[in-house]
Amino acid sequence: MMRAADALCEALTNEGVEHVFGIPGGANLPLYDAIYDAKFQHIQARHEQGAGHMAEGYAKASGRVGVALATSGPGATNLVTPIADAMMDSVPTVFITGQVRTDLIGTDGFQEADVVGITLPVVKHSLLVTDPRQIPDYIHKAFHIASTGRPGPVLVDVPQDLIRADIDYTPATGSPALPGYKPSTDGNIKQIRIAAKALANSKRPVIYGGGGIINANASEEFREFCRTDELPVTLTVMGLGAFPAPDEQWLGMLGMHGTRTANYAMDEADLIVCVGARFDDRITGKLSEFAPRAKFVHIDIDPAEIGKNLPAHIPIVGDAKDVLTKLAREYAALNPEPARLGEWWSRIRGWQSEHPLRYEDSSDSEIKPQFMVEAMYEATGGDAIITSDVGQHQMWAAQYYHFAKPRRWLNSGGLGTMGFGLPSAIGAKVACPDETVVGLSGDGSLIMTCQEMATAARHDIPVKIFLMNNGHFGMVRQWQELFWEKRYSSVEMGPSPDWSKLADAFGWTGMRCDAKGDLRESMKTALETEGPVLLDVHVTQDENCYPMIPAGAAARDMVG
Amino acid sequence: MGEPGTPELVKLEDLEAGSALTGRKHILSLMVENKPGVLARIAGLFSRRGFNIDTLAVGPTEDPDVSRVTLTLDGAVHPIDQVTKQLHKLINVIKIRDMEPNGTVAREMALFRVNAAVENRGEIMQFAEIFNANIVDVSRRTLTIEVTGSQDKIDSFERMVRPHGLIEMARTGEVAITKSRPDA
Predict the structure, then answer these.
(1) Is residue A364 part of a domain?
(2) d(CA A340, CA B2)
(3) I need a surface site. Which of A45, A129, A283, A528 has the fewest CB within 10 A?
(4) Does this chain's domain B21-99 share its CATH topology with B105-178?
(5) Within an 8 Å CB–CB cutoff, is residue A176 touching chain B?
(6) What number is the average pLDDT over the span A30-57?
(7) What is the ipTM, given to two decimal places?
(8) What does DSSP say about strands A166-167 and A153-159: parallel, antiparallel, or unpaired?
(9) How much is the pTM?
(10) For B45, nearest residue in chain A (alpha carbons)
């Protein structure tokens, strides 16, 4: 017999958990008492949202399940944003919340919130413990569901009285009993053959990959498949790193702030092979005018993605690793004629030379944000784990930092959660202590979760935050400039904290850079300095992120 | 054209994508785990994806761990394929059957309370007889009638009695089961 709280910790260890992120409170006091003796390390965050994003960063960087803990009521509701974020970006995560005693449930007890109900629309699954003996099994189920099929967040809500009970603990192993959960991973070979034969007949193909490739750890298979022929490749913001950039076959990112080449290629393609992506509105622009000449092969582990936004001509349900291995084999066996792509490539090369990504650099000491990303790429040798917040800096990083490997670019793509950058960097660094982890933030985003600087300081987690400080909610400012007649409404930050002083106050090393000539050296120093460092870089305030497909417009109507 | 196992390539112009809308009524029969909150998950999915349920009936099955949820939806408005795929993503949903209209027995029960003054009481009772309906409650001015049958039959009965003054109506929504093969 052991306390259910101890059994929960044992169950986490049984799942291979080495780190959890969280905050104690009333309803999860028994769990935290057990954590006192647990075999895993607990990283104390300063806000549950931070703990949740840390778990996401941990999962995205390592591929392992990220775990975050919170107490009932406000602790649990503070997790809603990271849970929704993990749902949108398919991040394998388990969230364990304390709940009030069972006799208080439904009475509006102190710190009571129906977190299972609140999170219902944004979880892959949730489990409310109603008997302490369920705990080992529920934890096992939660990890299984979070990490298999299309990954996602699973919530386990544990009432405070039940977790104090004594139970017999036997580790749960093997496939848990889930009669309604059988994700199919093996791609149908007949469908794959049809796809290969269509591709071999295609004159203007584009391979369009997304985050599913990274989730499936299938980047190598994806690259191999693309290399079986001279297939043009583009990736979504979630997929960056799944194909090494820069590369001869690489068209750049597609979508709203993607390259003209990638978007024009989609527009003129006759066959689009989508792997682990979901034809999101940021990719398609105006849906009715998206890729009007193309037939679609859609490969996804989630059958519901196929046909959701666009009809698929050749649907293939399966794990990207399995499907891509088979598809590469089947395609190569057809000995496709490379010369048939000659005309297509000359069209693509034309766009590439006519419309490269470009910006007007300053002629004085002003730091252009794009220049900052390029300097970051140089300073890190292109090989750091980069986490990002949400906004212009995120798009510039996606454009100008050339990700060569998977799990090097962690950002909030689907939900677009400002405040994701710093805590996810902390989580990534905990998962990958030997890697350089740089969080690129904007000043609008960073302040949303900046309290987590205390977490990095307390646990000595040496992340580097490069702050692209333009004094604005830059992306919103850009939209107000372009689409709302320059009626700038609440986009200027006004008096912001002195970031380097704030960093110092948190026990970090704070630095500031205002001049282009000093930037490379500042970045080098920041990367070489021990411990967490914040480098506040003051960049052009009113730079716009281009090119751009205006919301609801078609790809061929890109501006800038 | 490019059948599996043949050497020809697939002509892109031959590729077709399935149409999303079927244009007819669908009865979905869901076997779900008999656990608290499962109905909330299904209802929540429908509301957040903008699917509109026409009828919904929930009840036990021969297996105490499993409940059956029978839903009807309009396939002219909703892509049924997408609805079933989304429902399949709910971990507690074990099995979904899109019931074939020809291979299905579907029944609904309804209770009608109608005005039945002396002068039209006879006519209403005749309707009840034609529809094989039961009169389950009587008062001086009203009749309460129980009708069982297909959705269409109940719709027809409603049209018949409405002119007499329909005071109240309660319908269960359809439940359905597949027909056995004659030799089974």
Answers:
(1) no
(2) 18
(3) A528
(4) yes
(5) no
(6) 98
(7) 0.90
(8) unpaired
(9) 0.95
(10) A121
